[in-house]
Design brief:
The chain is of the alpha/beta class. The chain contains 14 helices and 9 strands. It has a 9-stranded mixed β-sheet, with helices on both faces. α5 packs across α6. It is globular and about 50 Å long.
């Protein structure tokens, strides 16, 4: 019922003659720039938005938010504050899905009772198995937005529905937009369900999600912690596990090009104090805040998605695979499925470029150059 209501409301926004829901329209695209939409469960100053907003040849048309690592409203607050810090409040932040299409907290608890604990459940997290460098993110109420460590925003989000905004932007710029999906893919699935031509009119989908066979690459306790959860469950990853049904809708959509960044290359990356210190002498509001906003030890998850698109040469290994996601309610619910062409089931799965490893030093050098750029005034 919840999913049906979301779809109906978004559909009304797309009807001919329907009143516009957005409070403000995005800026007109600049000639010669690569157009981007970002769909993300934003937290902190890291991730795709900051890097793409610092890239001089990229035009971000808007950022849609979804629940995942945090609830949607918290992700929205982080997005608004990020744009304030980067002096880019001209870009709309458009809130999207609060809950997955079908998955629920109660269903997840019952699943855990049958098949064992999940390591991370986003805002549903109520248990950490053993020692961990992560802080507890759980929050029972989606409406409660905590005080943000990077400061609370004073600007407001758009009143438009995220899925309707995505469809509207892609219709306005057919075959020109790269869509980054770096959280659970609920908004993207709803957009595709509203407009069957949505995926086909996107230039490229780049998403962070899924898992094939990640293993520990770097030394140290933090690297070990972020790799060990995949030792016994190598095909499970949070972005997909939060909303497997949405991921499957997206995997079956007719995108002209799909780039998948599973968790695999992230275990070869890590935020370090040395890297953050190397940004300090730029002395911008962004580089100053990064010193405390980012916690050393974490993998550079979503940053990989931004950097392989901006700097394709950092990719050291990639495969062409047909990818799908398990939506059965058994032990492998949300797991990544993949095949080469000869073995795929031919049930609508699409071929994807799957990035498996990257050159960490080259990626960090490119990231450093972007973070150190002067902010727009």
């Amino acid at each position: 019922m919840r999913c049906l209501l979301i779809l109906c409301l978004a559909a009304l926004a797309l009807l001919p003659g329907a009143p516009a829901l957005a409070q403000s329209a995005p800026a007109q695209s600049a000639p010669g720039k690569r157009l981007v939409l970002i769909d993300d469960d934003l937290i902190g100053l890291n991730g795709v938005p900051t890097l793409l907003l610092q890239a001089p040849d990229v035009e971000v048309l808007g950022i849609t938010t979804t629940s995942g690592s945090v609830w949607r409203d918290t992700a929205t607050a982080y997005g608004l504050r990020t744009l304030e810090i980067l002096h880019r409040t001209d870009i709309p932040i458009v809130p999207g899905a609060t809950y997955p299409l079908l998955n629920t907290q109660e269903a997840t608890k019952r699943w855990e009772g049958l098949y064992g604990r999940l390591v991370f459940k986003g805002p549903w997290t109520d248990y950490w198995p053993g020692d961990t460098v992560q802080s507890h993110p759980g929050n029972a109420s989606p409406e409660v937005v905590p005080t943000l460590p990077i400061g609370n925003p004073t600007t407001k989000a758009s009143a438009e529905i995220a899925a309707a905004f995505l469809v509207r932007m892609v219709r306005a710029h057919p075959h020109q937009i790269t869509l980054f999906a770096t959280g659970p893919m609920t908004n993207v699935a709803i957009a595709q369900s509203l407009d069957p031509g949505f995926a086909a009119n996107v230039k490229e989908l780049v998403y962070m999600g899924g898992s094939l066979l990640p293993h520990q690459v770097l030394a140290g306790p933090s690297a070990e912690q972020f790799a060990r959860e995949f030792v016994n469950t190598p095909r499970r990853e949070f972005n997909i596990r939060w909303d497997p049904e949405a991921a499957r809708i997206v995997a079956h959509a007719p995108w002209p090009k799909i780039t998948m960044i599973p968790v695999d290359p992230s275990t070869g990356t890590q935020w370090t104090r040395d890297f953050l210190t190397s940004l300090k002498d730029a002395k911008t509001p962004l580089t100053d805040l990064l010193q405390t906003a980012l916690e050393p030890g974490y993998p550079m998850w979503d940053e990989i998605a931004a950097m392989i698109w901006l700097n394709p040469e950092i990719v050291t290994r990639a495969d062409a695979l047909y990818v799908d996601f398990d939506t059965g309610q058994g032990a492998s619910y949300g797991d990544t499925l993949s095949w080469i062409d000869a073995y795929r089931p031919h049930l609508g799965e699409q071929v994807q470029r799957v990035v498996l490893s990257i050159d960490r030093a080259a990626m960090e050098a490119a990231m450093r150059a972007l973070y150190r750029r002067p902010l727009r005034h």
